[in-house]
Amino acid sequence: MQRHVEIAEFTELTPGAPITVARHGWRAKCLQRLIRLNLPVPRTLALPVETVRAIAAGAMPDVGRLAAAFGPDLLVSVRPSPEHPEWGGPRSVLNVGINAARHAALCDSHGTEAADALYLRFVQSYATHVARLDPDMFTAEPGPGALDAALAAYHAETDDEFPQDPARQLAEVLRSMARAWEGTTARLLRQAKGAPAEAPLGLLVQQMALGIGRGFSGSGTIQFVDGVTGAAQITGRFRGQVQGRSASEETFYLTRDPRGASLEEVAPRIFADLVAHGAACRVRLREEMQLEFTVESGQLAIIDALRVPRSSRAAVKIAVALANDGVIGREDAILRVEPRALSELLHYQVDPRAPRDRIARGIAASPGAATGRIVFTAAAAQASAARDEACILVRRETAPEDIRGMHAAHAVLTERGGVTSHAAVIARGLGLPCIVGASEIQLNPRDRTLSVPDGRVFREGDTITVDGTNGEVLAGVADMLEPALDDGFRTLLRWADNVRDIGIRANADTPDDARTARMFEAEGIGLCRTEHMFFDEDRLTVMREMIFADTSRDRRIALERLLPMQRADFTALFDIMAGQPVCIRLFDPPLHEFLPHDREGMRELAEALDRPLSEVTRRVEALTEFNPMLGMRGVRLGITVPEIYDMQARAIFEATVEASRHGAPVVPEIMIPLVSAAREVELVKTRIDAVAAAVKNEMKARFTYRLGVMVETPRAALRAGEIAEHAAFLSFGTNDLTQMTYGLSRDDAGRFMGSYVTQQVYREDPFHILDVEGVGELLLIGAARGRAHRSDVTLSVCGEHGGNPESIAFCRAAGFDYVSCSPFRVPVARLAAAHFALLSPKKG
Amino acid sequence: MQRHVEIAEFTELTPGAPITVARHGWRAKCLQRLIRLNLPVPRTLALPVETVRAIAAGAMPDVGRLAAAFGPDLLVSVRPSPEHPEWGGPRSVLNVGINAARHAALCDSHGTEAADALYLRFVQSYATHVARLDPDMFTAEPGPGALDAALAAYHAETDDEFPQDPARQLAEVLRSMARAWEGTTARLLRQAKGAPAEAPLGLLVQQMALGIGRGFSGSGTIQFVDGVTGAAQITGRFRGQVQGRSASEETFYLTRDPRGASLEEVAPRIFADLVAHGAACRVRLREEMQLEFTVESGQLAIIDALRVPRSSRAAVKIAVALANDGVIGREDAILRVEPRALSELLHYQVDPRAPRDRIARGIAASPGAATGRIVFTAAAAQASAARDEACILVRRETAPEDIRGMHAAHAVLTERGGVTSHAAVIARGLGLPCIVGASEIQLNPRDRTLSVPDGRVFREGDTITVDGTNGEVLAGVADMLEPALDDGFRTLLRWADNVRDIGIRANADTPDDARTARMFEAEGIGLCRTEHMFFDEDRLTVMREMIFADTSRDRRIALERLLPMQRADFTALFDIMAGQPVCIRLFDPPLHEFLPHDREGMRELAEALDRPLSEVTRRVEALTEFNPMLGMRGVRLGITVPEIYDMQARAIFEATVEASRHGAPVVPEIMIPLVSAAREVELVKTRIDAVAAAVKNEMKARFTYRLGVMVETPRAALRAGEIAEHAAFLSFGTNDLTQMTYGLSRDDAGRFMGSYVTQQVYREDPFHILDVEGVGELLLIGAARGRAHRSDVTLSVCGEHGGNPESIAFCRAAGFDYVSCSPFRVPVARLAAAHFALLSPKKG
Which of A374, A678, A435, A401 lies closest to A535 in space, CA to CA? Predict the structure, then answer.
């Protein structure tokens, strides 16, 4: 026995009605707001979610009172009203209540063509969505005979006449929509949008406002900003004499336009009303709204409204404009822009409207897009740059010696690696579009070709486009959107700076990086890696001489030649940063990174050093390591070959004096990498203090400096207390710390990380999102112990995670002083930090 | 002005005198004990440490009362008495008080020759140690004219007569000895023995008991056990008519001897007295003592006594004998043997008395010694073994494919590596003498030669000896001492087992290891690594087929061929262990360890697999990792290529059923390596449970098994709580955990570990001694969280540290259930655990 449910529980949308989003859905609430603004919304009744759920559960709707509310000439639409506009819902059904009698009346009042179109539309909807007949049979355009054919088809398929009772029509429509919402497809779709599987649905029954009539009629949408650019501009569409699709429609421009008729000219009063309604919505609803409206013989009706869909750049512009106009506060403006969306604005993007010839996919490792000719070596990239030709560097993976080639390239594509591989890290630092782990491509460096899954072969010099935002490699040239670092962008971030309560610095190794950091208004450099400075060709040779030196004296002689170059490096950075803090990490990588590993390279080196090849080979072999990540690098090198740190400290101090003499005073920060015991810090500190004293004497200058530790081994986090006794700051290097906490090399993780995340072995790639449970606990332990031993110790994160909103929230909660991230992540970080400050203000 | 100190503060050694070790030194206390036993000790006065310190500080000793105590005919010896016998001290000075008058009297009573010898001896001592004259001038043997020459030389050098006042002689001797104790050399020497730099000295003044006289006279030492073997046997020496070195001495055997006269025959009463004194000492001092004695005209005097110096094997034998005789308790016997000393007893040792032709030094990585012919490859080692010829495997470093060669060799010598390198770990497991990191040697594998620092070149086939106990490589054959796994050894360890309160298991991978573990009475296998099982030539081929399989099905087919072999491996282990627990670690290493890395090997593989060489090369390259330690291995492989664990689980369960049917019931323990997230355990557990269910059905058998986790990443320790929810046991793999906590690869650490420990950057090599502060804290965190989530979770350590006394103490204090170590470390571990149980009993 089927249970009946009487649709008694409905509420008319009046200004004072008890309508809530939770009980009636967003659309019900939105329409009520329009009504309160005196917008001409047709009469609308809202069915609450519990009624809709009962119907879906099988109860038969008894629509008596509901139908009666619209009087004898029932003609309504039924619209879905879920809790959130993005959660979708079944398609609206229009013209419910039409039947032969009503059709006849409409033929009189609106003409046969219009009446036919309205009836046909309902028959088609009902047949496919309610009676579930084959949709292919009900696709005819309105026209002579189409209505009769549809009614006949309905009869043939159901052995029944098309239902003529308006109340029955309404009941069936409600039931079909309630059930559609509970279907598997609808559930999956809304879950993909972030809705809970059991999200409820409200339904709205609205008096039809026809876009057809004897007088000026039509329907359209209108909005008052551009959804792509955010500029104040009326856009939308209006078609005359139409209700949805129709053959006899006539298209109007909204505003005056030389190309044709416009609503503004044809119906100036209606147009003016729409503009007034838009303005009212903007001020009272505090949002840019898109209005859906009809005009029936000169009568305007607003039948629906929606927040204007917008690109990231439009979102920024709209929020800033609303705040500047006093419609919303600045804090509200800040919260209206999703931080991650900002990174789109910093780079060229493939125009989403343009066609794409995708040839492969990989991991989107650094956002933005670029087009250029394929090169397979760093040397070829540099040659390209010399010819002023855009190129894409394609490598199996990149290594430190490729850095200059990456500088020269417009984008990077690698076959291997993950989001924190060398290529990815460097590319993000350079703001260079980058795809890594594109394992679908087959690289044949010998033939200088690249094969892609569909069988095409690309050669050196062929043009491709790398879309680092979504990880797609495209053949040929693609249309691009320009970066949007405009006033709105800058304004919003300044507002964000005023509310955030954690510092944001940038990781910057080169003057270019530093300038980018300044452009994005980072509060200093949180991590300046110095090793890249030794890869210039002239420096590399000296570096190798140093490595091959047999005595400390010979090492010193080689390093003395590097000293002026390093000093110039640091002076340049200090000058650019103009007094902002610069945290310089002492030399970190294993020495063998500076040696050639192929026979040819070793022969050249033997010649250059005038030593037998066998000796060069032996030394290179002796320096090779099983696990370079866990080998002789960082402070271990600093203690075993102390001449390197001595030289670097001297270069830093001499640059400090020099830069302070011609610019803002500099207080350099020196950071010791890979510490695992407090005594390491003690030993290095003693030598660096001595160098500082010597430079002060020699240059007759005064300066102070801060010495700190990069906490990147689990042991350094555990022993942070005693380490802090010798360190003014502790900066957590979460890249290496993650590697060691998991026992997982980021360079080797790519082969299984995908399947690990898919199987939910790891909730997220820990190199991408900070592992709060494991690595995060070490951060908390380290921070607490560091502070306990030295209450003024500066705490920060300088790993790749630094710019992630999740990490910023974590570090802020843990009381860290700042995070440091790639320059191109700085805007995201500034905005995200402001969000957290607004959403969870600190106590005290 | 020189301050005078009156030597009033002295105490005669009488049975009731208030003599303490702290105030008068060990020798004073020891002599008092002998006096209490009524041994004929000459009158002895003890100077307390504060007096000696005052003299050393410059006070002038006033010996009036002291000298008076010995009457007018002062003739005494002065002996040092530090707090501990091993802390050395200045040389004793004899015959203090002799002068021209006394010499004349002695000529009458003892004869001119004897009197001359006594006076000469004192003049020589005084001249060199007190007057600090050139020792070369005072070395003459006693004989006609020697005394006069010495006195003349003294006069010539000092422009003074030799001092004739006995009291002055005594004062000067006391002063010189007090000062010598404060000298730099003496300080360094005693610090090397573990003494504090400021350790004090007591001095003893003893009435001279001459070994010279008209009747039967002489001096000697006697002890009642053999210091090398520990056997009950009288040894020592006796020389007639002598006091120290002398030309006219006559040597006697102590006991009857066909080769010549013996004390036992010549002076049976004295001999019997000595034996009685020895027996009294043994019972009353509860120790085997060595007695120093003199006989003056038939009068016996005991002038000093010392605990018998003993080898490790003698220490065990003596302690067990004392306990068996009821002289000491068993617990006392246990505490009298230093645990580390036991490892000497398990292996052949180079006889310390034999000459050594040392050609190089390295790190003593696995104790014991062996002689054999040099081979440079594992294949050559196997060929040697086939010819039944002892060989020493010499490699730059060893890799898993060398394991069979190591099995075949009698010792291993490598140029590289540290105490936890592959060679060292495997060698200790095999009980094979091993030296690693012998960087002094130059290996030329191509010429098959080995150059050593002194320029000698050794070729394949030349004989050398590897002394893994002290890290020395010797040329040729060396005399050896046999292992001493005798009854005393077994008895002592059984006693230790009765008191210890932490379990000791062995790490055992092969039936040979398991048998060794049983021989040393380990309580099961705590870590059975399974990967070596795949290196047999027939298995390696199948393994490689598995690696090259393109589908899961092909992988299964290859693995099915390995299944019976694995099952046989496990059945053998279960049979040997006879119901004791066996903890099997699932496959751990990265797959590329099973692939060839040179061109030749790859060509052979391509042939064997019937695939193009280019494909083989590409696959091998693709599997190569930057940091294999942190790569795709352990459970990561188990999840990504689950067929391997499936096969291993099936082999374990089928072996369980088989072994249980013909022997003791088996409850296998299965351990998952390299876990970093609880979900990994969950996933593997689900599959293994399914395999168990299938095997039970197929074999119609019942069995239970325990699944646990090897905690070897810092993250696993931090997340031990949730991991324990799926794990019956947590076994801490401290090797890898140390590597990851420090960010330090044990294979690469060798290059700087030496200088790190020397500079005290690390207090100890953390791969050798458990790092209690860092790694230890992770153990404590892991243990506490594991227990909190699962109170009955079994906790253990199975890394190389397992057998170290320090680690055992730590694990015991932390409430661990057992430690697991190399089979050859089991005896040390059993004894050390007993020591801790006795020295710091657990509460409750």
Answer: A401
